[in-house]
Design goal:
By secondary structure, this protein is mainly alpha-helical. It has 20 helices and nine strands. The protein folds into two domains: about 5-200, Orthogonal Bundle (Fumarase C, Chain B, domain 1), CATH 1.10.275; about 210-510, Up-down Bundle (Fumarase C, Chain A, domain 2). It has helices at about 15-25, 35-50, 75-85, 95-110, 120-130, 150-160, 175-180, 195-200, 205-235, 245, 250-265, 270, 285-290, 290-315, 340-365, 390-405, 425-460, 465-475, 490-500, 505-510, and strands at about 5-10, 30, 90-95, 135, 140, 165, 175, 320-325, 330. The chain has a three-stranded antiparallel sheet with strand order 4-6-7. A hairpin with a 5-residue loop joins strand 8 (about 320-325) and strand 9 (about 330). Keywords: Histidine metabolism, Lyase. Its main location: cytoplasm.
Amino acid sequence: MATAPTVTLGIDVLTIDDVVAVARHGAAVAVSPEALSRVAATRALVEQLADDPEPHYGISTGFGALATTFIAPERRRQLQASLIRSHAAGTGAEVETEVVRALQLLRLQTLASGHTGVRPVVVETYAVMLNAGISPIVREYGSLGCSGDLAPLAHVALAAMGEGSVRTRDGEEVDAGDALAAAGIAPLVLEEKEGLALINGTDGMLGMLALAIHDLDALLLTADATAAISVESQLGTDAVFAADLMALRPQVGQADSAANLRALLAGSPIVASHRDPAVCTRVQDAYSLRCSPQVHGAARDTVDHARMIAARELASTVDNPVITLDGRVESNGNFHGAPVAYVLDFLAIAVADVASIAERRTDRALDRTRSQGLPPFLADEVGVDSGLMIAQYAAAGIVSELKRLAVPASVDSIPSSAMQEDHVSMGWSAARKLRRGIDGLARVLAIELVTGCRALDLRAPLSPAPGTAAVRDLVRTVAEGPGPDRFVSPEIEAVTGLVLSGSVARTVKEWIS
């Protein structure tokens, strides 16, 4: 794979592709000289305010419910270090490295904005840590999605101070101080305002949203392919996907999905074999076949709404207090994660429903009373072989979990910080469950692929469309065709790998472009 280009901060707004490049593919980052100049200018203002006998929140006061407590100058370094150590209170399983890198990148972007009041050395330290592949160990629980993703961000800041544990580029767990020393990075000694600036952001939930949008773009293309294969192999009709019928209901995502289905099914001998009403007497296909563009399209539109929210957040500076363009230090509520939390929950609903309709298409293929002549469970020797019977059980179990994961996190709120922070977004929790949901969707689609491709092969000597055949041929590189019962799990895992890697989506793109 070609090396991802360097992502430069401080000039253009970050994109979802930038986040994926740095978080998942290890792209390097750089901070523009213009950004460092802005950072230095606002830092000078903070240092002036630090000498002011009047208290300024985050600069010469405590935090949260202790915001009215004045801190003497000689205690402020201790204040900043204590803030980070006390807030690094995460617990539970480790968060994935790609999420941590996204978290680091997005906090770095805010620091480079010049609105947080940190010194240039803080910005530069975060950049070189990313480039050195130093990923602080962040735990599953600790963020309520308000006042920022406090605990996750605090673990990152703690590592920049040379404390706590990190993962190296090769995945080894080491002491943060040792990792910094090996990379030639001096541990940060935080000054006024800096501890607060390092933890007050929605970076974790936003990073997971960006990764989810990227993954769902590929998964929805894959879903169109699995639907096309199911329609074709179950002797469904493509007439319902006609462009003029879609135009009667001008939903953008629906039209895109239907166009993909038409392209994938174009030239199908299987579809042509029953197009004559004298041959096929069915009036309508079942909803799971006929309404695939409506469901997949609604999911696409939901992803596009989430993309809009993500773009706005990627253009944002989230900190409290912030340094304004005219030099004021102002408290604000921009750290509240509601905008991000809502769309994370919305996506979880779409994920569950796309998986649900895919599982129903799979089940139809295995039921001899509904599959239009296919053997029960697509078994080789009916009675002796069980075919893909239990593969559908696996899909059904995943879909059941996805429905539970679709329950929104953002409607919950538990007050914290002695009722100062009395309404929170739970956006981090929404993001965590969405990640599990996306993995589940990929597995359900993989099971539909395994099932649909076997069903296509069982329609021989009739051939599938060139588009669906290309997807089937890709699947056949890791999973065998029809035959006696064999160990099914490795094939499902291998096809899931094709789905998650984007290989299926790339094949689809070749036929819809």
